[in-house]
Amino acid sequence: MAIGDIFLLRVHFENPSGHGSFGLYFREVAANTATFDECKDLADGFHTACVAAIRNALSDDWFFAGITVEKVFGESRPAYEREGKDGGGLAAGVIAGPGLPANNAIQFEVSQETFSVKSNGRLNMPGIPESQSTVGTLASSYVTTQLAQLATFIEQHVNSPADDGVWEPGVISAKVRDVALPAKDWAGAFAPSTNIQPSSIIAIQRRRQTKVKGFSSVA
Q: Mapping DSSP to helix (H, G, I), strand (E, B) and coil, where does residue 44 land?
């Protein structure tokens, strides 16, 4: 509803034996003027921009299950969730063959220049095609094509599909946010991302326990 509001967007994935998600913060830089459904508009705008690139990076036994968005700073609004299916009703990855388990993740480095490099962020995405991995690393062509293309879409500002809202991606510095607990300085802790890059090293999530709720109809 207002410029400066901050949202947490989570992207959810699942396969027959695993699940996982990654989260990215967004700050509103242009307000919606027709409606106040910011969580929905942010989710729908991100989905429109990224659905094809997400599916192009996944093994076909993994699914883009859905997106959830909640506002963490600003006037309270209901959270929102939507399925990941594209316009044709498909959510499965497009790279043929089995995928690695959920605790094997693609790692994207999220850079920012507001705070020290210690406040840079990371996104860990499951769904790695087994054919694109070798002894803890990802195939070079996979990193420079599918993953680089996905990073390009993730790092863009998100536009509301049918309104004036615009949101910029970024990271939250927990050190700044929590300096005067119990109060939380969300506004001061946000740093816009300046670059998002995939790593060639497979990240191991030793406690991958994120639950996926409400996305059982993936196909």
A: helix
The three-state secondary structure class of 49 is helix
Rounded Cα distance between 110 and 128, Å, is: 19
Residues 6+ apart with CB under 8 A from 42: 7, 9, 26, 69, 158, 160, 165, 167
- Domain assignment present for residue 167? The answer is yes
Between β-strands 166-172 and 190-198, what pairing exists: parallel, antiparallel or unpaired?
Answer: antiparallel
Could you tell me the pTM of the whole model? 0.92
Confidence tier at 216 by pLDDT (50, 70, 90) = very low
Nearest of 64, 67, 68 to residue 90 by alpha carbon: 64
Alpha-carbon distance of 201 to 105, in angstroms, equals: 9
Query: Residues 180, 39, 33, CA angle at the centre, nearest 5°?
Result: 105
> Residue 32 belongs to what domain range?
6-86+97-204
- Domains: count for the chain: 1
Backbone angles phi, psi at 211, to 5 degrees: -90, 140
Residue 213: per-residue pLDDT:
44
- The verdict on residue 110 lying in a domain is yes
